[in-house]
Amino acid sequence: MPDPSEESRLPPGQYIPRGRPVIHYGRVPQFRPDRWSLMVFGATATGGEARLSWPEFSALPRVTVLADFHCVTKFSIMGNEWRGVSADTLMRAVPPAAGVGHVMVWGEYGYSANLRMSDFARETTLFATELDEKPLTPERGHPVRIVVPHLYAWKSVKWVRAVEYLVDDRRGFWEERGYHNVGDPWREQRYSYQEDAGDGPSWFGHDHIT
Ligand SMILES: Nc1nc2c(c(=O)[nH]1)N[C@H]1C(S)=C(S)[C@@H](COP(=O)(O)O)O[C@H]1N2
Ligand SMILES: [Mo]
């Protein structure tokens, strides 16, 4: 039976499917702890890049976030309990330079998604290592995925390997392929043709224009 309280939490155009779909583009990578690192680069406060090893990342404090998860293909997975390192904790460990307005989150094999700093810095944005009290399964992003529950789920990059601080916004993998630069499910920001002025990267600051 559908749970009426869950139905009432659905953003416009979304439905609750049977089961919990898993979707991504490409293969599931293998996790090798000795080779894994999380790189933080781009416009850092120090100007240099930082690399957290698996033990270093694992030593950061954890939070729990209870949230629904909305895929732009219209299914929503309700009531997920994510546990991991908040984006805020990572930003304190490796602070951005003044003037950083966006971040690019990079997964294995070059998948990426861009976020406004205000979305990255939300209390509920985290680098999750667990879902519903169990380590993430390989296909859900083991060992670490970012979860940005208030945006469409393509922004919740699985198998995260790097965070790039951006002074000038750039589009990520799906944002370059016709999806909305911001991706707020409550405003049904699915496609780039729905963007308002200011939602997408500025044309200034692009090398091919200057
Ligand atoms: N690295 C990576 N992360 C990704 C994707 C992907 O193709 N590669 N797909 C995204 C999309 S479109 C969705 S809906 C969610 C699906 O997450 P799930 O498999 O845990 O349901 O992962 C997102 N994160
Ligand atoms: Mo998706």
From TrEMBL:
<dbReference type="Pfam" id="PF00174">
    <property type="entry name" value="Oxidored_molyb"/>
</dbReference>
<dbReference type="InterPro" id="IPR000572">
    <property type="entry name" value="OxRdtase_Mopterin-bd_dom"/>
</dbReference>
<protein>
    <submittedName>
        <fullName>Sulfite oxidase-like oxidoreductase</fullName>
    </submittedName>
</protein>
<dbReference type="InterPro" id="IPR036374">
    <property type="entry name" value="OxRdtase_Mopterin-bd_sf"/>
</dbReference>
<feature type="domain" description="Oxidoreductase molybdopterin-binding">
    <location>
        <begin position="26"/>
        <end position="174"/>
    </location>
</feature>
